[in-house]
Amino acid sequence: MENLNLILPEIFISLSIMFLLILGVFKNDSSKITFNLSLFAILITTIITINETFSVTRETLFNESIVIDSMSSLMKIITLIGGFLVLVISSTYLKTFKIYNIEYPILILSSILGMMVMISSNDLIVFYMGLELQSLALYVLATYNRDQLKSSEAGLKYFVLSALSSGLLLYGCSLVYGFSGSTNFDTISNQLNSEEYVLTFGIVFILVGLAFKISAVPFHMWAPDVYEGSPTTVTLFFTIVPKIAALTVFIRFLYVPFLNLIDQWQMIIVFLSIASMVFGAVAAIGQTNIKRLIAYSSIGHIGYTLAGLATASNDGIQSSIIYISIYVIMNLALFSCLLMLRRKEQYYEDIDDLSGLSKNHPLLSLCLLLILFSLAGIPPLAGFFAKFYIFKAVLEQSMYFLAIVGLLSTVVAAFYYLRIIKTMYFDKEKDKYDTDHSLWLKFSLTVSTILILLYFIFPSQLIEVVSRINII
Amino acid sequence: MNFPILSSLILLPIIGALFLFFTKDKEGNNLTAKYVALFTTVVNFLISIYLWISFDQSTSSFQFVEDRIWIEGFINYKVGVDGISILFIILTTFITPLCIISVNNSVKNRLRDFLIAILIMESFMIGVFCALDLVVFYLFFEAGLIPMFLIIGIWGGARRVYSAFKFFLYTLLGSVLMLVAIISIYWITGTTDVAQLYEIGIDVKYQNLLWLAFFSSFAVKTPMWPVHTWLPDAHVEAPTAGSVLLAAILLKMAGYGFIRFSLGLFPFASEVFTPLIYGLSVIAIIFTSLIALMQEDMKKLIAYSSVAHMGFVTLGIFTLQQQGIEGSIIQMISHGLVSAALFLTVGVVYDRMHSRLISTYGGLVSVIPKYSILFMLFALASLGLPGTSGFIGEFLILMGAFKDNFLVAVIASIGVILGAAYMLWLYKRVVFGKLINEDLKKMLDLNRSEYFILSCLAAPILFFGFYPDPLINTIEVSVTDLINTHNTNIASK
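ok -> structure tokens follow
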């Protein structure tokens, strides 16, 4: 008999989704209660997952198709917390656009469920199932503001391109299955040998599909349009939560089934990383819309995360996980600021709208200043340490070219972050924005900014948590 | 456990800044904020004086060391001072209160924010000078960019945005390579602790590349020719207090870095690259002196003169002679005082006439005599007249240079003449000559606070000009030891 306690979080969240759907059918005007209940559900799931972390080292379920280890628990917790915070700061925005409906929290819950399955997957089929569940939910979320042309366009674009990449991924999976005779990661790892050249195609297809999901260059084309078109809160969700899951899957694929084929994929990851870092930095320079800019900036950040993965060492994996955690905090803070740019029922999202913000809203602009410097990687803010650990791991493997290109692209990237700061601090002021933000929005901005600012005092804690993850 | 005096020097300005942050910002002349900032920095100055008094001059080892685990098994928060760094800390704590007194006229809006930026800047600068761990050093070194970017960008002149960006990106570009080098050092030797690195040394085959990586950062910050172009822009556009901090202290970080890290960690590479430094320094001295000669803008002229003076400093450091390095340190301290004073004197007339062009002025001596006297003192100190601190530094550097390389020393001496030329010509055009501009007649002489600031700067310039012993005694043992270690390292090869 399998120990079902291990997948209690997944079971609980699926039951919550079903219950909420039924509730939505039978109760009129149930959006508020659905919101609150789904927050509650995420909270309970988080507590169960955290509880599990302490008791489990590494367990497998269902013929080893699901794995629970320290990495999966940590990534699930980050996903859940990210999902919780996105949901909690969404309500004002959704109400403004009159799309405060029951579907929103349920879709978020389903995509979180999909991601949790992805994170725990140790089998090609389980992985694909989780991926599709989260993708389908995300397609709908992208078009959530369906009366707006841009939102529909974003959803359609995302759907078509994502379906294509899923196709590539499946093809890669079938090739790998063909050569190894198994869908289980551990078995594949034992069966594969690097002399089969066609197998390389399989790996490449899988990596391309995954690179698409985390929007690494050159598979990033969808990101700017989708990020710009989707409702801002959904963009926030896009920029943080799916990336965590996709990164975990990336790590699992590279370091469990394909570990022996490291010569085959290392160059690919290095290329993806360098291309993303450079492109993310250069392409963002000309942007005027903040959401588009964030899209390019997140492409750049994914490049740094991949740099950690390319090292093929535990240090590298750990530094990537640290990077993505700090990135989640920074993006959460950035979007909280963006959601505060509201004046008379309208949201503003151009860089020009920030003009002279520091005169009317000194505290908000101070937070944004810290967040942007942190994103640019200037010490002593958290973003610097994230990059520092990555380059520490990269240089341990003597990959000097990667490190130098990465650091030089931070200088280029610093330019566009500085441009926003310049607009806020050096330019003429405009009208004031509303200040009656929800308590949760203020809370998430304050807490994340404080974390960014004071991270340098206690840098060891995060390392300690992550250091338990030893994949290789 | 002794009282953590260095940490309190670093923390105190931050506490002052936090206090200011929670006070209400008032329009106009915000006296409360100013007093709070002034009080903080004066206390900091007194602490640093106490540090100097209790400093043991007879040893070259690091004193007042604090060593705390920061990132488990990787980085320790380690600070400490020796004879080389202590003077820079005192320079920092001495210049900052003067900056704060001087903001009266130059900063019109958001005074509180300006003071916060200055205080945070002070804390980072002190941190740079007492960090004994490469990562901690890098942290402070880079963090200083944030407040300086804001100081130039928010309170600067007409082209402030361009200058602020140029300053930030130039310096950042230089520094990232240093970060690569620091992490590489960690992987090569297993530590980033400076004192330990001095002992174990770094393998010769890595030294050249690492030296170049550090050089790229320090050369930009010094600034050395040909990467000096950010400095005139930043100086001209920054508000007076910003220019003072920039010239007096920020530039010294690089000179200090050259002595502490380039010389200390990479002795072989330093020998290898001495010709490069000599070449760039000599070009900086001659070339930028000639540029300074042709400037129309007073602030720009002083900025270029800073580049030339820093050329002397780098020249002196890499002579690897006792006199050369001692001269460089004294030259940096002296330049810190003199350039601060010169920027403030320019600030004085700028506040009254709102013009930095030399052609606006002329014949000031009959209108504002007190100002003219002090200006003359600073101009003479800048060109290195005996009896001022500028002389001691330049003289020692040239002495060191003559010992090491005759030709370089001769060319550098020509730079001294050029320095006299542009400074005296500037002084002549501004202070002497006919009073043509009618508006100048309404100018008021120095007010009390300006008089106080300038006298505060004039006193040490003259005092150390006649009696440099306190400075030399402080640095002597450390420099001797540095050179001895260097020579034994080279000899052991």
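The radius of gyration of chain B is 21 Å.
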